[in-house]
Amino acid sequence: MIEYIKGYLSSGTTPGEAGNMFWATVYILLVITGVSVAVLCMNWLERKILAHMQIRLGPMRVGPHGLLQPFADALKLLIKEDIIPHDADKFVFWSAPVVVTMTAFTTFLVVPFGRTHAVTDMNIGVLFMLGVSSLGVLGIIMAGWSSNSHYPLMGSLRSSAQMVSYEIAMGLAIVSAVLMTSLQTGTGTLSMIGIVESQAAQHTWFIFKFFPLGFIAFAVFAIAMVAETNRAPFDLPEAESELVAGFHTEYSGFRWSLFFLAEYSAMLAVSSIAVTLWLGGWMRPFPNWLGGTAWDMAFSFLPALTFFVLAAGCFLGTIRMPKIPQFRVQTIGLGTFAALLGFVGLVLLVPGVRVRIQDIYWFVVKVAFFMYLYIWYRGTFPRYRFDQLMKVGWKVLLPTGLGVLIATAIWGLMPQLSAAILGVLQ
Amino acid sequence: MKLNPLLRKIFLVDLVKGLKVTFHYQPPSEAITEQYPLERPVIFERFRGQPRLNVNPDTGESLCIVCNLCALACPEQLIVVKGERNPATKRKEVVSWTYDLSRCMFCGLCEEACSTDALELTQDYEMALYTREGMVLDQAALERGQEPEKYAK
Fold first, then answer.
1. Considering CB atoms only, which of A57, A322, A380 is closest to B18?
2. What number of C-beta contacts closer than 8 Å exist between A and B?
3. In this complex, do B28 and A322 lie within 8 Å of one another by their Cβ atoms?
4. B34 φ, ψ to 5°?
5. Structural contact between residues B137 and B146, judged by C-beta atoms closer than 8 angstroms
């Protein structure tokens, strides 16, 4: 049994490639659990970071520094009364959150957390991801329509218009990144793993390739993806001040939490597209400049170091807890949490784990950076007006995306082009 | 540094500036939230809160001379003072003194009108109660200060 697991883990393929149903199921379960945990963490982090940006403290009461707040929220949502409006279309109302959540989770099938840490390596990976995540719009329209109420309908109409128009800019940016995989090497690919591998082969992340073209494409994508996930400053579908809560106004309890889950996992999904396409996916920073086994060794200690830093932060918080009886439980809890983080750090020092966890760690760090950006935008920018939103989408991002696509193609074909021109001249 | 407006738009200069501002507010020490039961708020000297009727610390007698000025000054007319002249000392003494805290807006006019500094708005601010009736304070309550009510189900 252990031999079998060891043998599989060292085989260096994804379950999809190996055609192994069992491991594929295990990976899917792991990914779904991981994403759900990430959403919980995001919930806490968003409230905390947003609060600090607005000079507030955020949740402080449920657990030390509000660490248990997501669990309390989840519990509250689970035991809340489930209301379906009287005149709602029951079946569609019921299926909308399911559709949204399913599409959000399905996209993670092709996300490569590492060379072997992906459920499967589809040769149309990017296309699959884009296609499935666009299905989320359907769920939102279903939610808005079936609620039989004004605000949800308006919200879902806005949402569909927004998502459809930003998808084009997003697609163009992606195509230019996909072009980069084929240029100069002649082996283009849409597979997520293939894209990262071609970045490794070309010794550059695509964000730096053909500077500034790669960067512009990335910027177009980075803006479009915020609009695509309906987040501030493009959160018109749920504009609280105008539409109550947009398409999920009539939803409550568990169904609402499904929408929440879907929104955050969609954010994670588009962030992982951006990371895979432009930021080198699971590769560690500076593989060329700081190359060699010594640097590999040094970088492989970083995951453990991260956990040690987190543990130290928690430990510091434990020390600085108010020394009064009411806080004893919280102090013990935070201390235990610090110990737990430290233990995880120690586990990550084990050589086998250390090497294996590398790619996942870097991927997660890059995605985490994007999630921080999402929160940062939300803490900073006021919401756009709808016409401004459409203007940005159609008049700025779309032409820029097209221009970048054409420029990338021309730049990539420069040797052949110049040869052809020279040939004509002679 | 002045940049061309078009360049400002292209490089998102203003947005980056905004991002910088929120970024710098992040250290928790910047937060101005006050964690109330743990941390008591800073009360300023002229803060007007819970009313109190002062007594003479030596004799324990009320300083109130039942002049009714506070009741006249009160815009809400929530102070009702009744007194009777004591034939022995030839001084007016309080018969009943009520102060309806539920209608009070803490303007402090009563305190200003008081000629003997008997009525005073103190710096206590925890005046929440479970009943409206309890908000009507009598002389005894005003003199010893309101007792916090125990929470019970």
1. A380
2. 39
3. no
4. -115, 125
5. yes
Nearest to B38 among A322, A377, A380 (CB): A322
**Which residue numbers of A have CB closer than 8 Å to B's CBs?**
49, 51-57, 60, 322, 376-377, 379-381
Compute the distance between CA of residue A271 and CA of residue A173 in angstroms, rounded to an integer.
Answer: 14
What is the C-alpha to C-alpha distance for residues A296 and A285, in angstroms, rounded to an integer? 11
Q: Give the up-direction half-sphere exposure of residue A315: CA atoms within 13 A in the CB hemisphere.
A: 11
Q: What number is the average pLDDT over the span B8-29?
A: 84
Contacts of A322 in chain B (CB under 8 A): 38
Q: Is A409 helix (H, G, I), strand (E, B) or coil?
A: helix
**Per-residue pLDDT tens for A209-220?**
777 888 888 888
Q: Please report the beta strands in A89-158, taking only residues with DSSP state E, as ranges in sequence order.
A: none
CB contact under 8 A, B26 and A381: no
Please state the length of chain B.
153
CB distance A55–B19 less than 8 Å?
Answer: no
Q: How many helices (H) and strands (E) does chain B have?
A: 5, 5
Q: What is the DSSP letter of A115?
A: S
For helices A328-347 and A302-319, the axis angle rounded to 10 degrees is 170
Mean pLDDT, residues A360-374 taken together = 89
Q: What is the pLDDT of residues B2-11, one digit of tens each?
A: 678 888 877 8
> Measured over all CA atoms, what is the biggest interatomic distance in chain B, rounded to whole angstroms?
91
Asked if A57's CB is within 8 angstroms of B35's CB, the reply is: yes
Hey, are the CB atoms on B22 and A380 less than 8 Å from each other? yes
> Given an 8 Å threshold on Cβ–Cβ distance, is B35 in contact with A60?
yes
Max intra-chain CA distance, chain A: 91
Q: Nearest residue of B to residue A233 by CA position? A: B15
Question: What is the C-alpha to C-alpha distance for residues A172 and A400, in angstroms, rounded to an integer?
Answer: 9
Asked whether the ipTM of the predicted complex exceeds the cut of 0.85, the reply is no
Residue B47 CA from chain centroid, whole number = 6
Q: Tell me the average pLDDT of chain A.
A: 83
